[in-house]
Structure formats: structure tokens, C-alpha cells
Specification:
The protein has a single domain (28-241), classed as 3-Layer(aba) Sandwich (Rossmann fold), CATH 3.40.50. 31% of the residues lie in helices and 25% in strands. The chain contains 7 helices and 11 strands. It has helices spanning 20-25, 46-59, 73-83, 90-95, 113-129, 140-146, 150-166, and strands spanning 14-15, 30-31, 35-40, 64-68, 99-103, 134-138, 170-176, 198-207, 210-220, 230-235, 238-241. The chain has a 9-stranded mixed sheet. Strands 1-2 form a two-stranded antiparallel sheet.
Length: 248
Amino acid sequence: MAKITVDLGAPIKRLSTGIAGLDDMLYGGIPEGSQNMIIGDSGSGKTLLSFQIAYNAARSGIPATILTIDQTANDLLRNALSAFPGFTDAKELMDKGLLNIVEMELLEEFKSRESITYFISEIVKGVRMNDSKLLVFDSLSVLRALSADDRSFTRMVNYMVESFHNIDLTSIITMEVPPTSGDSAKIPGLYEESMFDGVIRLSNMKRAGATEHLTSVIKLRFSKYKSSTTPLEITPNGVIVRNRQASL
């Protein structure tokens, strides 16, 4: 039997989220060049968490683009700064071109391969124009509504992920999923969840009449991660992920 040699390659380079507790769960951050999802039910903090990761990257000198398709760029920024009034330098980062918020006009419906190809190529063009190393895409749920069926939706997402991978872009893509999904990595409407390198799940839990936000890392390809469910708190100075396992 021939001996098999495994090339482990260079150590994984990571992009810090700038959130200590989350970086701890990810063993230092998101692997560079990986394609990731933040999924969760409505109001669980997907947009705010992804905004903060992009903001923190920009503050560290890494150009980041937030692409929004379910609200205007002004609305996204206004809502984020309303939640995080401590992010006083966000507009300065935008003026410097380190933090870019782009709203994208959608076609009425993605009926053909050509329409899908054009849509993804416009995203890639915008990322290159801004020289961004990190892309936040908010939200994939809108694309599902405009796709003819699950197969078309999967084809679009697969092409998107491949395109981002080909330009060595690190991406974070949000998607709303029903709370009944539990900790499963299965994404509604997608045939192949394996196309994503990482999946972070956010959820809400009612405790004594109050809502507690929780986060867990479901998947992180080729990398260590901590899978325990951990409390997440949204504060005026940003998201805090607590370094303790939640008692469920």
C-alpha cells in the first residue's frame, strides 16, 4: 500500500471579530478567505453582530463592505448607530473608505442563469472597487423570496460562495431561520449547507419574562471551535459574548 503524505500547509490566518468572547469561541477569529453564515430567528441580532464585525475590521485597518438588500444604506447605518451609540467613529471610517455600506438594487426575480451571474458579478465588482477584504451580505432571505425554487436558490448561493472564494474574500452572510430549527446546521431552502465554511447560530430564549440572546458556533471547517451555547448581550458599546456556557 502506498504511503499517503498529508500537507497540513501554513497555519490558518484568522480575521478577528473584535469581540473577545466570540473570538474565544472561534479560537482567534474567522479563518481568512472563508465563507460564513450568521443564521437566527427574527430579532436575534444577526445584522447588528455582522455590522460590528465589519466595523471592528475597519477600525483595525481592514477594508470592509456591508451590502444590504433588504433596507437602505442610510436605514442600516441609522439602526446600527441607534443600537451602538458608542461607535462614534463609524462615519469617519466610511469617509476614509475603510467601512463601506452599499445598497443593491434587485431584479424582480432571478429566472435565469444570466440574471444570477450578473447579480453576483456586480457584487464582486463592488468589493474590488472598495478593495475590501471582508464582505457582510445582509440578507440571504430576500434572495430566497426572489428565486423560483429551492434548486435555483441553491445554485445562486453556490455560485456566490465560489465567486467570493475565488477572490480570496472573507464573507459573512446573514439569513433568517425559524426558531424551531434548534441547533441544526440545516438552512431552510438550501439543498447543500456544506458550501459554507462556517455557521454561527443566534437565537432568543425567554427567561423570567425577559429575552436572552444566545450564540453558538455550529460549524467551522478545518478549524477548532467551541460549540457551547453562550449568552450574547447587545450594549450601547457593542455586542458582548459572555465566556461561559449557558445553562439551558
